[in-house]
């Protein structure tokens, strides 16, 4: 955050590459969407800032974007909200948006080191106590405080790790009896999971709908 205050141009150059729209949701995002469609998704906690979960159709109220989002913007000095579309237009034209109240620099609501996590992050204290199953996917579980929330589930709740590597509490030997691990390519693992559940055709249909949205 201190670096941004002194040299905002570096972030805005990067933001032009990071803004949602350059990439599409993949099979994993649509699998989580299917969890929602089946009434099985309590919440998705993500460290991603690419907005692909929203693009896949996962409702905002089901998402906790712990490291922020490009879908909103605000002044980094007075925290006044700023129209996100206007902020994007200015940033994509290689300019720096300014607050209309205090003339401070406006940035997308991405969490920098030195900033607080969004209030929604603390829903985990209630959510994880309600969960029957926690699916942990595509993470190193090294960034705190996000990394520790996987330990917030009830002792009887199952935890499933789908990942390339062992991370966090899943490195422990012996494992908890309620922990299950499947290592390997994440897309392959999730597709195998969907096949076991009998959801393949439904997820394929979701992907088609997402690639060819109905225009009204």
Features:
single chain, 216 residues, alpha/beta, 3-stranded antiparallel beta sheet, 3-stranded parallel beta sheet, 8 helices, 17% strand, globular
Distance between the termini: 41 Å
Largest sheet: 3 strands, antiparallel
Morphology: globular
What's the average pLDDT? 92
- Number of helices in the DSSP assignment: 8
Oligomer: single chain
Class inferred from helices and paired strands: alpha/beta
Q: Helical percent range?
A: 25-40%
What is the string of helix and strand elements?
Answer: HHHEHEEEHEHEEEHH
Radius of gyration: 19 Å
Residue fraction in strands:
15-25%
Question: How many E strands?
Answer: 8
**Order of adjacent strands in the largest pleated sheet:** 4-3-5
* Low confidence ranges: none
How does this model look, in words?
- By secondary structure, this protein is an alpha/beta fold.
- Helix content is 33%, strand content 17%.
- It has eight helices and eight strands.
- The strands form three sheets. It has a three-stranded antiparallel sheet, covered by helices on one side. A three-stranded parallel sheet has the order 6-7-8, with helices on one face.
- The longest helix has 12 residues, at 186-197.
